[in-house]
Amino acid sequence: DTAVSQTPKYLVTQMGNDKSIKCEQNLGHDTMYWYKQDSKKFLKIMFSYNNKELIINETVPNRFSPKSPDKAHLNLHINSLELGDSAVYFCASSSSGGDRTYEQYFGPGTRLTVT
Amino acid sequence: GNSVTQMEGPVTLSEEAFLTINCTYTATGYPSLFWYVQYPGEGLQLLLKATKADDKGSNKGFEATYRKETTSFHLEKGSVQVSDSAVYFCALTGNTGGFKTIFGAGTRLFVKA
Question: Which of A23-32, A50-59, B17-26 has the lowest mean pLDDT?
Answer without folding.
Answer: A50-59
